[in-house]
Amino acid sequence: MATAFAFSPTTPVSSEVSTTLSVSAGAAFEVCADAVEIPRWPPLVQAARILSLQADGRPSRVAFTRKLERGSLGYTLEYHYDPSTYTITWTTPSSSNA
């Protein structure tokens, strides 16, 4: 099962999504860590562009473009990975549009 949570530092917001995958936890972690492929999953995300990488080659900062009814919205996320627990967390930097 894969679970995602979202938290806001100013407003307690959380979201959880679960699904059962027929792959190992390590394989699922690697798929979810590939930020460039995220636009293939949710239809509202148009594009993802890696802005910076960590020493291990994983994206540390990614710019996204999201579809809106009339136009689009750009935002940036900073990613942190813990392969020992198969955890990926992200934050929105203060310089982001979101």
How would you describe what is shown here?
The chain has 98 residues and is mainly beta. It is 8% helix and 43% strand. It has a four-stranded antiparallel sheet with strand order 3-4-5-6, with no helix packed on it. The protein has a two-stranded antiparallel sheet with strand order 1-2. The N and C termini lie far apart (29 Å).
Quick summary of this structure?
The protein has one helix spanning 25-32; strands spanning 2-4, 17-19, 45-53, 59-68, 71-82, 87-91. The protein has 98 residues and is mainly beta.
Order of helices and strands: EEHEEEE
Mean pLDDT: 81
| Unreliable stretches | none
Q: Which sequence of strands runs across the widest sheet?
A: 3-4-5-6
Number of helices: 1
Note the overall shape: globular
Helix content: under 10%
- From the alpha carbons, calculate the radius of gyration and give it in angstroms: 14 Å
**Which class of secondary structure composition applies to the elements?**
mainly beta
Major sheet: 4 strands, antiparallel
Distance between the termini: 29 Å
Overall strand count: 6
* Beta-strand content bin: 35-45%
